[in-house]
Amino acid sequence: MGAHHGWVETIDYTATDVGAELRARTGGRGPDVCIEAVGMEAHDTGAQHLYDQGKQQLRLQTHRPAAVREAIYACRKGGSVFVLGVFGGAVDKFPLGAMMNTGLTVRGAQQHGQRYIPLLLDRMAKGEITTAHLATHVMPLDQGPEGYDLFKHKKDGCVRAVFRPGD
Question: With 70 as the cut, is the pLDDT of residue 41 above it?
Answer without folding.
Answer: no
